[in-house]
From TrEMBL:
Residues 11-122 form the Coenzyme Q-binding protein COQ10 START domain. InterPro entries: COQ10_START, START-like_dom_sf. Pfam families: Polyketide_cyc. This is Coenzyme Q-binding protein COQ10 START domain-containing protein. The lineage of its organism: Bacteria, Bacillati, Bacillota, Bacilli, Bacillales.
């Protein structure tokens, strides 16, 4: 059961970071290398509490679908998405936004269990955990870039 945790300082208000993080459109932009797109549920705009989104993407040469639901939301501080259906046995993804004097500290915690028992655990060690870490890091960097550009353009 890997737990991927990251933090990133963003020089932008918490509300902006919160909204960009739950934007379906920004998510698709940040995952363009996998061809990820929203195909069911909420397919654009800002996902809200109780809503689902089904993503379709190519990972490791295989087209996959994954459905996640927003199960907790405390705007603009925190939201949680959990897998409803997909390739993982389960995942629980916490997004937190902590106001700081210079902006927002964005905290990301992705707790997941791979399928296939011992084979899944081996896949985690060999490649999956590092692959997921890279995807999350790229997504967070794009959110940071967009948020900071928006702040600059309104200053």
């Amino acid at each position: 059961m890997p737990l991927i945790q990251m933090s990133l300082m963003i020089h932008a208000p918490a509300q902006l970071c919160f909204d960009l993080s739950r934007s379906i459109d920004i998510h698709m932009q940040s995952m363009s290398q996998t061809g990820e797109k929203a195909v069911a549920g909420r397919t654009g705009g800002l996902i809200e509490l109780g809503e689902t989104v089904t993503w379709e993407a190519v990972h490791f040469g295989v087209r996959q679908r994954l459905t996640a639901r927003i199960t907790e939301m405390e705007a603009p501080r925190r939201f949680v998405d959990e897998m409803v259906q997909g390739a993982f046995q389960r995942f629980y993804h916490v997004h937190e936004f902590v106001p700081q004097p210079e902006g927002t500290l964005m905290l990301d915690s992705f707790d997941y269990t791979s399928p296939l028992g011992v084979l899944g655990k081996a896949a985690d060690r060999l490649f999956l955990e590092s692959y997921m870490t890279r995807l999350l890091r790229k997504r967070n960097e794009i959110i940071k870039r967009i948020a900071e550009e928006q702040v600059k353009s309104t200053s």
